[in-house]
Amino acid sequence: MENQPLDFDYQSTTPCSKGVVRAMQPYWNEFWANPSDRQNRSGLHMSASIGLARDKLADCLGVKPERLIFTSGATEANNLALLGYSRAKAIEIGNPGHVITISTEHHAVLDPLKQLKREGFRVTQLVPDSEGILSSEKLIEAFQDDTFLVSIMLANNEIGVIQSLEDFSKLCQSRGIVLHSDAAQAFGYLPINVEQMGIDYLSISGHKIYGPKGIGALVIRESLPIQPLIWGGGQENGIRAGTLPVPLVIGFAEAASIAINDLSLNNKKLTFLRDKLWNDLQSQIPDLIVNGSLDRRLPHNLNFTILGITGSRLKKRLRPFINYSSASACSNGSPSHVLMAIGRTVKEAESSLRLSIGREMEEKDINSAVSVIKKAVNELRA
Ligand SMILES: Cc1ncc(COP(=O)(O)O)c(C=O)c1O
After folding, report:
1. With contact defined as beta carbons under 8 Å apart, do 311 and 90 qualify?
2. Per the count of CB atoms within 10 A, which of 81, 112, 119, 369 is most buried?
3. Residues near 249 by Cβ (< 8 Å), separated by ≥ 6?
4. Whose CA is nearest to atom 15 of ligand 1?
5. What's the pTM?
6. What is the pLDDT of residues 143-170, one digit of tens each?
7. pLDDT (tens digit, 9 = 90+) per residue, 228-278?
8. Which residue ranges form the domains of the chain, and what is each CATH number?
9. How far is the CA of 235 from the centre of ligand 1 (A)?
């Protein structure tokens, strides 16, 4: 469409890829039986299709398919892991214990943890360094006698910073502490082998990886107790009841498989485009500061602050021309808690842009974005 804004918001969501739409197509009205209905051949066929999709997705994560529980997205997966495991653990040991997280988590982790606090659990929120990185030393200092759960995201949704999950998992394992990670932004961009990385619970989402919206999964550790959030027909081993959305499950597995197959090729291109974007912006617009580590970062993320301008005026000028985010899509417009955690002021946080690049984009898109942003900043600074 003519005069559509440039799209630089691929961490908020992605379009379904053509291959994904093709894979889902027959499951809307040709194969439509209920996969839980094992009494007829059509139901069995659907159940087998779900089984194949589960195998495919499990393969992308380096886990046994039994460890996958399909959910409506990463928000539900986080809630299930955090509330479900904590409540079950509290029943097992007789009282609510201590949980550790990082202050730069998405609200889909921070808010269930707030709920746990209301239920009597103690929650420590660790603050990362100025690059957005959490050190092992900080985590070690935070452990308490009754710490039973640590939740640390693999990659941040706003600043793209990647945490050292393998180091954290060793620290947790040696103390018998369970590790959950929200990998909604990392999956499909970083190679993840859940088994090798020693992660007990991992949350992922379909719509961040060119799959459908409304589907995600929680990788569970089968030996751990977990209380369901949704009760009903016993689907997903009784952990998440409800008829599985077959087309979405098929599409999710296909999207994952495409993303993992093309991971290095895509990342090479995305890194090139992102680096060009940052270099060109810096060379044409003075007084920009990057937010978060540039080295330990998702390939398609750039987040920077434009000094000396007012955020609301910048937004007004940019919105007709470019889709971007000034914080996470789910933060209701308040200044980014992530940017504040790494030391930005409210004013700086408000004049920051998260630009995220799509895998179909080209150099000309980067050039257009640079000239749109440059024009807006020059006008505001004049
Ligand atoms: C890090 C992170 N966690 C969770 C979510 C929520 O995922 P979903 O939309 O699949 O519920 C998002 C989406 O923005 C995210 O970026």
Report:
1. no
2. 81
3. 50, 53, 54, 70, 215
4. 184
5. 0.97
6. 999 999 999 999 999 999 999 999 999 9
7. 999 999 999 999 999 999 999 999 999 999 999 999 999 999 999 999 999
8. 6-15+263-381 (3.90.1150.10), 18-261 (3.40.640.10)
9. 23
